[in-house]
Amino acid sequence: MVPGKKGKLRAKAWTIAGSCFVGLGAIGLLVPVLPTTPFLILAAGCYGKGSPRAQRWLLENPLFGKHLRNYQEGKGLSLRVKATAIATVAAGITFSIIYTGMNALLTVILIGVAAAVIMHIISLPNADRVS
Fold it and tell me: Which residues of 24-51 are buried (b: 16+ CB within 10 A; e: fewer)?
């Protein structure tokens, strides 16, 4: 294979992976236990390696682009976004525990994952302006 073709194939693979992560993030908007933000962060990273155009689309998205950019640049999240994210995680985990009837071990694992996610959100710097 010619190096140019290999590079194009690699870029397409990164772009496809990014699109899959965007899809999972979109599903995460509807499914309580599936997170959205980590998938969008992964998508931005994949698009950065495969398609600058797709990365630009993601980072300029009016709904979540600003938050992704702030996260990538280490600026953190506004208090409002942090509060919303923590409330969403807590509500999704609570809903899952109450309505799915999962066993005790899965419940403990789910609570542990939720606690880790919430601690990560809290540990992020506060963005200057509330958005």
Answer: bbeebeeebeebbbebbbbbbbbbbebb
Residue 93 shares a structural domain with residue 129: yes
CA pair distance 89, 91, nearest whole angstrom: 6
Which residue type is seen at 84?
T
3-class state of residue 36 by DSSP: coil
The conformational region for residue 129 under phi > 0 = left, psi -120 to 50 = alpha, else beta, is beta
Report the mean per-residue pLDDT for the chain. 85
Q: Domain check: are 10 and 53 in the same one?
A: yes
**pLDDT of 108 above 90:** yes
Report pTM.
0.66
Sign of the dihedral defined by the CA atoms of residues 14, 20, 22, 28, in that order? negative
| Distance between CA atoms of residues 59 and 47, nearest Å | 10
Domain of residue 111: give its range. 77-131
With CA atoms as reference, report the closest residue to 46 among 35, 59, 61: 59
